[in-house]
Write a structure and sequence with these properties.
By secondary structure, this protein is an alpha+beta fold. The protein has 3 helices and 5 strands, in the order ααβββαββ. The termini are close together.
Length: 130
Amino acid sequence: MEYSSLSVQEEQIGKDIVHAAYLVHKSLGPGLLEKIYEVCLAHELHKMGHKTLRQIDIPIQYDGIIFEEGLRLDLLIDDLVIIELKAVEVINPLWEAQIISHLKLTNLSLGYLINFNVSLIREGIKRFRV
């Protein structure tokens, strides 16, 4: 699949997301509730200078109508990158499809699915492009 190039800003956000996830996981480890990782990851990204919004509702347009109760994103970074967080034993493939759908519906190009319930955080980070 061929993608358009990401901006320098999007690439930097991606690097910062991975680094922030590493810092949070190194400090807290696996086994906590998703909400704890969400607030800590948002805090780390905010410290790095990113605009970080949590649990935001994004309206969707369908059949010429805008539905306000469309999507709920775990994290939206600088209005450019979506992060879906999990703290589970096994990633459900449906969540991967969900983040791709979220990217398409928001017209964004980059998203991350991060599962903190892993021994090594690199095993819990998946990057998605549309």
